[in-house]
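Box 3.1 A note on notation
Throughout this textbook, protein chains are presented in two layers. The first layer is the amino acid sequence; the second is a token string describing backbone geometry. Keep the layers aligned when reading.
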Amino acid sequence: MEKQYGLSMHYLKKKTFKRRFLSKEKLFVYLITTILITFMMYLSWAIKISRSTILFSSFPQLTWILTISALGGLPFAWRACCRRPIGETPKYIFQTYFSGFSLFLLLSLNAFEVYVYLFPDKIISYVTDYDVTFPGPPRGRSGRCKAGLLIKDLHTSRWIELCSSKEALKISDKRKQGMDGMWITTKVNELGTYIVKYEFTYK
């Protein structure tokens, strides 16, 4: 009887341990999935923000991106050095460093455009010049926009090309004959400009 009771307790403990292990495993999978989905959503949102943002030409964006990525990979390489599995070569350290470098590269690619969007010094509106282009700017993997709007940003003194369409540019209530200016509202700070909205107008 005691032996049977002992076997029952053994199987009960084993079953409980397996249930806890599987619960932790599921929690880990959910956590990783949530992080990946959040990461992809951020990248998509940041790319969308960057299409309406223009930075000062004097701002060394590429230098900053490469510097952040290079520094971001160092903690990964340090951890690989301290906890390198037995038998792994220095190539393992480089691969780990490159993983960290790639992660921070993705995070920093549009980080400055997002900064302009989230932390503006002020919001300003003004009338500026514009031009129409055919075809428009690139739009991801789907090719190019059918038409584009080149808008002169007075804050950075640079032109920005926004995606548009032939339907949006035809003469209508929104774009009447003779409208030779563009009224734009922008968020601006020390790094650049984010175009909030725009509409055709007369100069």
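The chain has five helices and seven strands. The CA atoms of residues 128 and 154 lie 7 Å apart.
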